[in-house]
């Protein structure tokens, strides 16, 4: 087990920022820690990286207890904090060298992490001269210096433009090939793009913990169909296994089926039998988005 959290509670004054949170992350997983602002994500990550102590409960990272073996935890973990403090006047290599000295990491490792995070073309600049996307790379390079087994990344893509976003997501996915990654986000699509698994937190409580593969083959299926003419909803309700029918736009219908089987051929046969012409027909993948909205509403 790479990360093991057991009934962690954190109380700030009167507020339960975390309320008896438990979960386990296996080695090699990329897990998205998803929740709206104020849900408790950063608090959990600070506890796992030993920057904050829990009010009660236990947590281990790579088998080391976060209160009893802080040093060992710090050695196992690479942490990208939410508001990554970077020294803007320092050159990229200078900044990494400063931290490498703190960790007792060899100089050759600096060039390795520069290579690994794609910083090479910008490495001669000061951090202040870099775009937000490249600053995040510097933060990631820094987190990787001591070659930790576990990466804890707090909202690594917040504030990036769409191109930077794609680049950083790719970088994180590739880092995840030989590390355990636990990353927070409040964006559901982010989890879909990068993660094997999602843990959803709301008001300090875990409200869902699922593998994305299981979600993708969920119990429901929505088929979107466009006809060349108006069709009564009641008529479409005659389809097998149908749950609901919604007319979303002109002659476009969203049909929800209570089955995992691909229902498109049934819709096609139904249209054919009833002299309806189909202009488009596809399955809609919304399970994660709708689940997130329901659980955190
Ligand atoms: P997230 O990262 O999911 O946005 P946080 O872990 O930052 O959530 O915050 C969880 C809750 O705890 C929020 O309501 C926040 O206002 C509160 N909180 C966080 N840090 C402190 C603090 N140092 N003192 C008091 N309340 C805090
Ligand atoms: Mg946060």
UniProtKB/TrEMBL annotation:
Q: NCBIfam families in the record, alphabetically?
A: GldA_ABC_ATP (TIGR03522)
Asked whether the UniProt record includes Transport among its keywords, one would answer yes
UniProt-recorded Gene Ontology molecular function terms = ATP binding
Name-wise, this protein is: Gliding motility-associated ABC transporter ATP-binding subunit GldA
What family is this protein classified in? Belongs to the ABC transporter superfamily.
UniProt cross-references to CDD domains, sorted A to Z = ABC_DR_subfamily_A
| UniProt entry keywords in alphabetical sequence | ATP-binding, Nucleotide-binding, Transport
Q: Where is the ABC transporter domain?
A: 3-228
Q: InterPro entries of this UniProt entry?
A: AAA+_ATPase (IPR003593), ABC_transporter-like_ATP-bd (IPR003439), Motility-assoc_ABC_GldA (IPR019864), P-loop_NTPase (IPR027417)
- Domain of life the protein comes from: Bacteria
For this protein, the record's PROSITE patterns field holds: ABC_TRANSPORTER_2 (PS50893)
Q: Any transmembrane segments, and where?
A: none
């Amino acid at each position: 087990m790479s990360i093991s959290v057991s009934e962690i509670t954190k109380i700030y004054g009167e507020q339960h920022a975390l309320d008896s949170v438990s979960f386990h992350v296996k080695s090699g997983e990329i897990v998205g820690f998803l929740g709206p602002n104020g849900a408790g994500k950063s608090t959990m990550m600070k506890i796992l990286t030993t920057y904050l102590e829990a009010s009660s409960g236990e947590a281990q990272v790579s088998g080391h207890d976060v209160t009893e073996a802080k040093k060992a935890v710090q050695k196992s973990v690479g942490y990208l904090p939410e508001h990554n403090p970077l020294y803007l006047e320092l050159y990229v290599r200078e900044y990494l060298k400063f931290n490498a000295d703190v960790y007792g990491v060899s100089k050759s490792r600096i060039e390795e992490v520069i290579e690994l995070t794609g910083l090479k073309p910008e490495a001669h600049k000061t951090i202040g001269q870099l775009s937000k996307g490249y600053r995040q790379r510097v933060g990631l390079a820094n987190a990787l210096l001591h070659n930790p087994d576990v990466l804890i990344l707090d909202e690594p893509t917040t504030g990036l433009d769409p191109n930077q976003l794609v680049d950083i997501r790719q970088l994180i996915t590739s880092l995840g090939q030989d590390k355990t990654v636990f990353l927070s986000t409040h964006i559901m699509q982010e989890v879909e793009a990068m993660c094997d698994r999602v843990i959803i937190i709301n008001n300090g409580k875990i409200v869902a913990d699922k593998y994305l593969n299981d979600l993708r083959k969920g119990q429901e299926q929505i088929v979107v169909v466009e006809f060349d003419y108006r069709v009564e909803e009641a008529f479409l309700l005659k389809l097998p296994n149908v749950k609901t029918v919604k007319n979303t736009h002109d002659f476009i219908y969203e049909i929800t089926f209570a089955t995992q089987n691909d229902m498109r051929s049934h819709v096609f046969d139904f249209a054919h039998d009833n002299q309806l012409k189909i202009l488009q027909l596809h399955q809609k993948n919304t399970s994660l988005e709708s689940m997130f909205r329901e659980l955190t509403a």
